[in-house]
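Example 3.2
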Amino acid sequence: AKRNPQGDPFFARTPSNPEEYFLLGLGVGLYWGEGNKKNFSAVRLGNTDPDLMRAFIRFLEKIYSVRKEKFRFGLQIFSDMKPKDALRFWTNALKISSSQFGKVIVTPARGVGNYREKTKHGVLTVYVSNVKLRKLLGNEIEKLRRIR
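Structure, written as tokens:
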């Protein structure tokens, strides 16, 4: 109520076509498998794949009406990567503003390895701080747990 004095900024849509049902299943599945569920006041998902992140953002926008400006992003890179290049990659890939990012976290590189190919642009975390949204997604996961 404090942050949204005009009322609830979003609502959960009931899917009305196969594409929306697919998007709902995909988004809940991504959050269930990859999301941070320990935080009860925000929805967070981290990954290195821009297509996966785009799909999750689309899910939150289409199914839960989350506005683009409500998204925040974190970026973790290794010390042998250039923060500006990684930030530019993600802002272009997701068509988002660099002002939505927190400070880029730089982790020391751990020698030569295959991490460079997997994380050549860093690990992006998208998060939306909203207790109601977090509860709604938790309820969707519980529904899926009961399916056997």
